[in-house]
Write a structure and sequence with these properties.
Layout lengths: L1 H50 L9 E4 L6 H15 L4 E6 L7 H13 L3 E7 L3 H10 L6 E3 L8
Parallel strand pairs: 1-2, 2-3, 3-4
Helix pairs in contact: 2-3
């Protein structure tokens, strides 16, 4: 029994180490992507300012990415996006993907931004009917948009 237990513990330790390494690698890739996205958002904001097109003639949409969902995280992510874009508010703010544990809190944050007139409209992305039905149970405001990607390249 002790020999088997020692083997199990050793294997669990290796598995845990592997999972931790995998998590760290994914997190580093995620952080790398966030930095790249942040640079692109700043460049988009600069392009808007340099274009000479009046702001009221440009419709700006942004999304709350998966890693930024949750009530406080959503508010922080939105503030960062607006700051990086160099604008006062976006016209449409979407939840990028329905994350199970965070759907309600993320939606409540979007509604808060909408109530405070910090966004022109709020919506969802990739919400299938079950998620939309769930949203109906706790939303005060109906999503303006449910953006779904359709592509012949997706299976």
């Amino acid at each position: 029994y002790k020999k088997n237990q020692a083997t199990i513990n050793r294997n669990q330790s290796r598995k845990s180490r592997y999972l931790n390494q995998t998590y760290l690698k994914r997190r580093l890739v995620s952080l790398s992507k966030e930095i790249e996205i942040g640079k692109r958002i700043t460049e988009v904001g600069e392009g808007i300012r340099r274009s000479g097109i009046p702001r009221d003639e440009i419709f700006i949409t942004t999304k709350i990415d998966n890693c930024n969902q949750g009530f406080d995280e959503t508010l922080h992510s939105y503030e960062k996006s607006v700051k990086d874009l160099g604008i006062e508010k976006v016209d449409l703010l979407l939840i990028h993907w329905p994350i199970k544990e965070k759907r309600e809190s993320t939606w409540k944050a979007l509604e808060q931004l909408y109530i405070n007139q910090q966004v022109g409209a709020i919506g969802t992305g990739n919400y299938l009917l079950p998620f939309l039905h769930e949203l109906e149970t706790y939303c005060t405001y109906t999503p303006t948009v449910n953006q779904i990607e359709f592509s012949p390249f997706l299976n």
